[in-house]
């Protein structure tokens, strides 16, 4: 490592040496404004970026405003029923034309000079338009629409690159893991549950990618959560030779997507009872399981119900399918600052009791008031603070599991799946000749 | 605990204020077991999501929705040096104002108050948690206890407030 002590190796920020079984990431990637600007161009302008879920825009006129890939976006269903991703900026002089977080609109109105747009983005009216020259064509002055908007099983992604491959191609092996989430609904329809968790972390956004799937950190970062589980009657004793109660896998899903795939030990609303749910929930969870088996067969039902999976869709969407289902995306505000938004996802058919149980289970672990996430936030912020010395301690190590042969599986406590992210990041950010 | 008695005739705002100020001191000094002693055996603690401040935790994803079992577990966690987000414990200062008794129904006294909680940690931004409390109080053996506390934040999103890892 000494020859690289003070900087990049051969100009690269991600350095893999299979022979030496080493994998290093230069900490410049976490602190540099130039790297962030490069990411905006090479990643966020080129990849499919999650924008929202079909259930958030059920009816014509429904809209959600959010920041996606650094842009103000209106994610809406126009009054004819077509989902849209419109850039929330007046064509005249730039002001935001939709200020509410969510709602149902007949039109979008710019308070500055009164330009008004239809929900499909087309111009509706321009006050005093007789003052414009003859060459001014109103029909070309609608809100700019993001060039691509596609969905997979109701998860909508946008893309600023007209030439990008289709979403279904891009998602590659991630589709199978999205299916495992959506198949929890008897009708194949999941919905975003009301209530958002929107919080900032003073750390680089890529640390959240790592943290979301890094099961190596669980014991040291989350011992208080493990204690809570143990106090609640969950068996948290790890089998011999393992760090965690079950032996899980870390998987490469192609195109930079990755997942953990772990036998469940901590209970799942669909469909594995633990004592936290209460005795009265037992029969109900049995019934959910029975429906699952009847619809999917024994093997597929077990696949859906008996494993926990934290999925990263490159670059910045995480689906945690564990004690509940979270949809979480996050984006950079600066090199050392990200904003996280998280939602709970559940089957549309859930009864009131089932929904309440799902939400209760969500909060055992996840979220800014949960028993685990605040300690993740702290770990990431401490890492970012340490990166202030990036020129003196330039390299982060991600070599766990590299000594294994290709036939041996990478465990969830290895870093094989983290390397999947970094390889893809490197391909896009620092293409080799 | 004995059966609660009808509180309507006896409750005063001064008594409610004494309870809330005492509670604030216990929380600011991290005497968390003593704080648990202020609660009824079925107490609940809620922090609604910032975008849906007046919602119901059974249908809406909250930031915190603890029954007494989880609340006791939360205290175990907060006292543990491995609660990294709160170790060392944050320095907090709570200012409780605008205390009002808003209703008495059966054995339950409803109370509203405003709070400003200033929180300081080394190497972190100073943070201000501003909002309103909604309490439900009950009297047991003459002692006023908290059966529900709801801390509703005014911020549009948590944003730079980050985690809610201490008790609001």
Which descriptors would you attach to this protein?
heterodimer, A: alpha+beta, Rieske Iron-sulfur Protein, Naphthalene 1,2-dioxygenase Alpha Subunit, Chain A, domain 1, 8-stranded antiparallel sheet, globular, disordered N terminus, B: 168 residues, alpha+beta, Nuclear Transport Factor 2, Chain: A, 6-stranded mixed sheet
Our count of domains of chain B comes out at 1
Helix content of chain B: 10-25%
Please report the distance between the alpha carbons of the first and last residues of chain B.
27 Å
Largest interface, per-chain counts?
Answer: A-B, 42 and 40 residues
CATH fold node name of the largest domain in chain A: Naphthalene 1,2-dioxygenase Alpha Subunit, Chain A, domain 1
Strand percent estimate of chain B: 35-45%
CATH class of chain B: Alpha Beta
Mean pLDDT of chain B: 95
Mean pLDDT of chain A: 94
Category from helices, strands and their pairing of chain A: alpha+beta
Largest sheet of chain B: 6 strands, mixed
CATH architecture of chain B: Roll
Kindly report how far apart the N and C termini of chain A lie: 23 Å
| Gross morphology of chain A | globular
Which runs of chain B of at least 5 residues are low in confidence (pLDDT < 50)?
none
Provide the fold topology:
The complex is a heterodimer of chains A (433) and B (168).
Chain A (H helix, E strand, L loop, with lengths): L13 E4 L4 E5 L1 H4 L1 H12 L4 E5 L8 E7 L2 E7 L5 E5 L14 E3 L3 E2 L6 E2 L5 E3 L22 E5 L2 E5 L7 H5 L2 H9 L7 E3 L4 E5 L3 H9 L4 H4 L1 H9 L17 E6 L2 E7 L18 H15 L1 H8 L1 E7 L3 E5 L3 E10 L2 E11 L4 H14 L7 H14 L8 E3 L18 H14 L4
Antiparallel strand pairs in A: 1-2, 2-21, 3-12, 4-5, 4-7, 5-6, 8-9, 9-10, 11-12, 13-20, 14-20, 15-16, 16-17, 17-18, 18-19, 19-20
Helix pairs in contact in A: 8-9
Chain B lengths: L12 H16 L3 H5 L2 E9 L16 E3 L1 H12 L11 E15 L2 E13 L6 E14 L2 E11 L15
Parallel strand pairs in B: 1-6
Antiparallel strand pairs in B: 1-2, 3-4, 4-5, 5-6
């Amino acid at each position: 490592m000494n020859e690289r002590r003070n900087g990049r190796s051969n100009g690269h920020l991600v350095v893999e040496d299979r022979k030496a079984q080493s994998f290093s990431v230069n900490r410049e990637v976490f602190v540099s404004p130039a790297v962030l600007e490069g990411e905006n161009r090479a990643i966020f302008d080129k990849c499919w970026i999650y924008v929202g879920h079909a259930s958030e825009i059920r009816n014509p006129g429904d809209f959600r405003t959010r920041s996606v890939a650094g842009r103000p976006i209106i994610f809406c269903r126009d009054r004819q029923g077509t989902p849209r991703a419109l850039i929330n900026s007046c064509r005249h002089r730039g002001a935001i034309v939709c200020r509410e977080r969510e709602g149902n609109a007949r039109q979008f109105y710019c308070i500055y000079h009164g330009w008004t747009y239809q929900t499909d983005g087309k111009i509706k009216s321009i006050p005093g338009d007789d003052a414009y020259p003859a060459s001014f064509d109103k029909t070309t002055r609608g809100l700019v629409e993001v060039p691509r908007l596609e969905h997979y099983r109701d998860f909508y992604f946008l893309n600023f690159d007209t030439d990008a491959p289709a979403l279904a191609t891009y998602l590659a092996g991630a589709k199978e893991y999205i299916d495992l989430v959506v198949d929890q609904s008897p009708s194949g329809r999941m919905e975003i549950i009301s209530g958002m968790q929107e919080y900032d972390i003073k750390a680089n956004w890529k640390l959240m990618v790592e943290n979301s799937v890094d099961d190596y950190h669980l014991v040291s970062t989350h011992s208080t959560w493990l204690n809570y589980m143990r106090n609640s009657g969950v068996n948290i004793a790890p089998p011999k030779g393992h760090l965690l109660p079950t032996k899980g896998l870390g998987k490469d899903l192609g195109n930079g997507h990755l997942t953990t795939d772990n036998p469940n030990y901590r209970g799942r609303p669909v469909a594995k009872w633990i004592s936290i749910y209460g005795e009265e929930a037992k029969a109900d969870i049995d019934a959910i399981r029975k429906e699952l088996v009847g619809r999917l067969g024994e093997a597929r039902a077990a696949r859906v119900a008996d494993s926990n999976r934290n999925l990263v869709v490159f670059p910045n969407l995480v689906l945690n399918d564990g004690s509940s289902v979270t949809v979480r995306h996050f984006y950079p505000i600066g090199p050392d600052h990200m904003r996280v938004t998280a939602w709970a996802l559940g089957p549309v058919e859930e009864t009131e009791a089932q929904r309440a149980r799902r939400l209760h289970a969500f909060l055992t672990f996840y979220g800014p008031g949960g028993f685990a996430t605040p300690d993740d936030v702290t770990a990431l912020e401490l890492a970012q603070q340490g990166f202030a010395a990036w020129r003196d301690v330039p390299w982060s190590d991600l070599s766990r599991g590299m000594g294994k042969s290709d036939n041996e599986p990478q465990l969830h406590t290895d870093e094989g799946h983290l390397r999947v992210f970094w390889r893809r990041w490197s391909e896009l950010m620092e293409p080799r000749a | 605990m004995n059966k609660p008695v009808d509180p309507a005739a006896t409750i005063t705002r001064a008594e409610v204020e004494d309870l809330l100020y005492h509670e604030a001191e216990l929380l600011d000094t991290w005497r968390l077991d003593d704080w648990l002693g202020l609660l009824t055996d079925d107490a609940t603690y809620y922090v609604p999501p910032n975008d849906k401040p007046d919602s119901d935790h059974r249908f809406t994803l909250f930031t915190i929705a603890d029954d007494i079992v989880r609340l006791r577990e939360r205290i175990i966690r907060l006292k543990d040096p491995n609660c990294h987000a709160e170790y060392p414990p944050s320095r907090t200062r709570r200012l409780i104002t605008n205390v009002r008794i808003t209703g008495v129904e059966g054995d339950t006294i409803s109370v509203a108050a405003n709070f400003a909680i200033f929180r300081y940690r080394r190497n972190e931004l100073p943070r201000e948690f501003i909002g309103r409390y909604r309490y439900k109080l009950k009297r047991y053996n003459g002692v006023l206890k908290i059966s529900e506390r709801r801390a509703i934040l005014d911020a549009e999103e948590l944003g730079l407030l980050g985690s809610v890892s201490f008790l609001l």
